[in-house]
Amino acid sequence: MPGIKIAVVGHLSIDEISVGGERYVNMGGVTCYAALAARALGAYVKVISVVGEDFPKSYLEILRRAGIDLSGVQVTAGKQTTRFEITYLGDERTMKLLSRAGEIKLRPHYEGFDGIYLGPIAWEIDLDSIKRLTKESVKLLLDPQGLMRTIDESGFIRLRRLDLKIPGLWILRISREEAEILAGSSKLTKIINHLRRLRAEIMILTLGGEGALILHGSKIIKVPCYPVRVIDPTGAGDVFGGAFLTEFLQSRDLEWAAAIGSAMASIVVESRGFSPLLSPSIVEEARRRAKLIHESIKQL
């Protein structure tokens, strides 16, 4: 997929994950999953991030070998990387912040990039900077999870309501849990009405095992999941976003891009962590699954 250039901005993290009775430590963050998904689909990807001295060099080597440009990754002396403790119990997830890297300053210009994926996870990007960046007429996808997070006295992550009406925002990618907080309701109709008021050109509402909804103008499409046995759901929404952005920039086909996003997400949850995104066969398998998903997409 020559010609597509994407910058992915946000903290790379170290995740301590407990799922299915097992515990493992892995590279994480929206940036990790979205960048690897975009790169797997052939985009030129540059990561802009801040990590501490404790960030394993082996993680950087994984990204480098995948062909990702790491010239925008700053290793800060004497600082720690953003680190989370993530625990899954059934469908419930708890997150505890163990350490946090520094802020990322958004440059005012991103000339030459076809799309910018902003994936903050721990307040490393501020909302005012995002609003300034949208004035530059860049194609900006925002995953707002890191803007909505707050921590309690024990260090556990909670979500807070936030005004995400950002003039000029191209794509908003948000989970159902986050959307429920924004809308103040768990009812899908109220969530959709609230998202429409935010006025992003395209809105991706990921619904876990129920697939996703894509809102574009007056259109709403329902994107199903490919049926798989979920081993680890970490990063699924991020993969959906990275794959969708890459495919949509290339094809300008909303439904096909959504099908690719859903297919890529279904692949990553079948194993632990990001490793499926490194498979040489992932694109072939994703396109096979996407064809089946595409046939089942419905307009609501």
Give structural notes.
A hairpin with a 2-residue loop joins strand 14 and strand 15 (219-223). The two termini are 31 Å apart. Helices cover 32% and strands 29% of the residues. The longest helix has 16 residues, at 236-251. The strands form three sheets. Strands 5-4-1-8-9-12-13-14-15-16 form a ten-stranded mixed sheet, sandwiched between helices. Strands 3-2-6-7 form a four-stranded mixed sheet. Helix 1 runs parallel beside helix 7 (236-251). It has one domain (5-299): UDP-N-acetylmuramoyl-L-alanine:D-glutamate ligase (3-Layer(aba) Sandwich). The model has no long low-confidence stretch (mean pLDDT 94). The relative contact order is 0.16. It is α/β, with parallel strands linked by helices and 300 residues long.
Short description:
The chain is an alpha/beta fold. It has helices at residues 30-40, 57-65, 127-134, 145-148, 176-183, 188-198, 236-251, 254-268, 282-295; strands spanning 5-9, 13-19, 22-28, 44-52, 69-76, 82-89, 92-99, 115-118, 140-142, 149-151, 157-159, 171-175, 202-206, 212-216, 219-223, 298-299.
User: What is the domain tally?
Assistant: 1
Q: End-to-end span in angstroms?
A: 31 Å
* Residue share in β-strands: 25-35%
Overall 3D form: globular
**What is the CATH third-level topology name?**
UDP-N-acetylmuramoyl-L-alanine:D-glutamate ligase
CATH architectural grouping: 3-Layer(aba) Sandwich
* Number of helical regions: 9
The CATH homologous superfamily is termed: Ribokinase
Determine the structural class based on helices, strands and strand pairing: alpha/beta
Computed Rg: 18 Å
Indicate the mean pLDDT. 94
Tell me the name of the CATH class: Alpha Beta
Give the helices and strands as they follow along the chain. Answer: EEEHEHEEEEHEHEEEHHEEEHHHE
What is the helix content? 25-40%
Poorly predicted runs of 5 or more residues: none
Task: Characterize the biggest β-sheet.
Answer: 10 strands, mixed
- By DSSP, the count of extended strands is 16
The strand line-up of the biggest sheet is: 5-4-1-8-9-12-13-14-15-16
